[in-house]
Amino acid sequence: MIISRRKLIVSGLATTAGASGLAVAAHLAQKYGLVPPDHGGIYGLGETLTYASQRLLTRHSLAREFPRNQISPRPFPNYLDPLTDDFKRLQGGGFADYRLSIDGMVHQPASFSIADLKSCPFRSHITELACEEGWSYIAEWIGVPLSHVLHLVGVHPQARYIVYVSMEPDTWDSIDMADALHPQTLLCYGMNGSGLPVAHGGPLRMRLPRQIGYKNVKFINRLTVTESLKKFGKGLGSIGAEYGYAWYTGI
Amino acid sequence: MATLESAQGPMETCISSSVSTAPVTMVRPRHSVLVRVTHWIITLCFFALLLTGVEILISHPRFYWGETGTVLTKPLFQLPIPSSRRLVPTGYRYVLPDQNGWSRALHFEAAWIAVLTGLLYVISGLLTRHFRKDLLPSKADLSWRALLTSFAKPLRFERPSAAESSSYNGLQRLTYLFVIFVLFPLVIWSGLAMSLGFVSTFPWSVTLLGGHQSARTIHFFVSLALVLFLFVHVLMVCLAGFWSRTGAMITGRTGTRKEHA
Question: What's the domain count of chain A?
Fold first, then answer.
């Protein structure tokens, strides 16, 4: 097959335009925070397209909220690893000594008891928790908006991510500021009109109704505000991402 | 050496006659370059989506209707297969290994590539009038007699005639249009309706389908319909001559050119 000169020129120009277009897109995506920390590897393209498009589409959108009569009568807590001795000791004391510490790029590192958090203005929403496995249920979630606590400690303007660590061994995750400051993102201490059961992550769980279940980490006791996720674990943004589970789970 | 300038638009392949002394007739390729390339990209994505879809499915092989559903609620139905999660009651004594991490990643990546490729195909199909010329059935195609004939022929293992190998019959046209404009959009829609992020901006996309779990159940059945189409499609290709039809989708040429030479 012989390629005509015109075809050669046209395809050459198209390739150049495509390549420079991609380079510009990559630069802009980095600048506007549209690249997820787990963007490397063979699935990086998919992860980046999903995260970037959802960030552009959903930055301020609210998760669907449901009427009270749609609350699932039996919320499914999923499998839980055996609790650690440290956790059991705190549980024995009614979680009176449970603390949530906040450090990193903040003006005033602080530590909150559950009672401290309960004295903050609270918000509740009736939203669906959907697991990556396929099941889902609706519950009322009660807690203090993460944005409120971040406001109390004063976040540096360069901060881009909040890392949250669980009392479960080797369990941590992170979110970007769009999710951290989102009004429905809660440090959740209550469920369906009462306290948050331990099976559901009590005394304190991260509740992100716009992301999949596993991102809603149970038993959180430490928040770190940071500019970069590179120094956390393998730098992929979450422990899940180190096992191949996406960092961003809007889908 | 002569290079023929394409007379039928930019999608044409140029056929050169270097050795043959026979007069070269300009044959319109059976399938344009764009159709061939998008066909195989989507084929590849489809298999990736199918494999990872099954993989994700086995972590919860139960289906529900409405908004919610867990192992604590009654399912619409449950597939009689083992699961990769120990809390799913399956009746099997073993639990399959968890493969959801990479399966979800590949599922969404393949979906992105398939959707973008599909968009390219649909836009170019509209611009080049591919749908109107090659897929829109004529009135005559749609008569019951014509449709019945096209349905009965393959059942009698009758090979399509030469005329039929350069064009589609009414039944094929309707099927392709249904797959392109009904099944694919539905499978994309029901997939996106399960995305918590997507539905926070477009809540109607999930409420119209009846809820999160309904969307999942619809996604499953539309995928089944697509798999059924794939089976029949490959069966028909085999019946018509696997190598000549597959070759036409790769090179664009039908085997008939040799006969003319």
Answer: 1
Instruction: State if pTM tops 0.90.
Output: no
Touching B: A residues 102-121, CB under 8 Å: none
**Chain B residues whose beta carbon lies within 8 Å of the beta carbon of residue A59:** none
Q: What is the DSSP letter of B28?
A: P
**Interface touch A130/B212, C-beta < 8 Å:** yes
The nearest CA of chain A is from the CA of B25 a distance in Å of: 16
Residues of the domain holding A101: 61-242
What residues of chain B lie within 8 A of the CB of A250, using their CB? 195-198
Strands (E), chain B: 62-63, 77-78
Looking at the domain assignment, is residue A215 inside a domain? yes
Contact B91, B83 (CB under 8 A): no
Q: For residue range B221-245, what is the model confidence (pLDDT) as tens digits?
A: 999 999 999 999 999 999 888 998 9
Size of interface A-B (CB pairs under 8 A): 139
Cβ neighbours for B171, distance < 8 A, ≥ 6 positions apart: B147, B150, B151
Contacts of A77 in chain B (CB under 8 A): none
Find the closest chain B residue to A7 by CA distance.
Answer: B10
Which residues are A207's β-sheet partners?
Answer: A186
Tokens read off for B202:
């477009």
- Per-residue model confidence as pLDDT tens digits over B113-128: 999 999 999 999 999 9
Q: Is the pLDDT of residue B10 over 60?
A: no
Strands A172-176 and A205-207: unpaired
In a domain, A6, yes or no: no
Would you say residue A234 has pLDDT above 90?
yes
Q: Is residue A54 in some structural domain?
A: no
Q: Which residues of chain B make contact with A3, given a CB cutoff of 8 A?
A: 14
Check which CATH number belongs to the domain holding A97 and give it. 3.90.420.10
- In angstroms, the CA B203 to CA B209 distance is 11
Q: Using a CB-CB distance cutoff of 8 angstroms, which residues of chain B are in contact with residue A211?
A: 196-197
The answer to whether A60 contacts chain B (CB < 8 Å) is no
CB-CB neighbours of A238 under 10 Å:
28
Q: What is the ipTM of this complex?
A: 0.91
Is the residue at A156 inside a domain?
A: yes
Nearest Cβ partner of B101 from A1, A57, A245? A245
* Peptide bond just before A203 cis, omega within 30 deg: yes
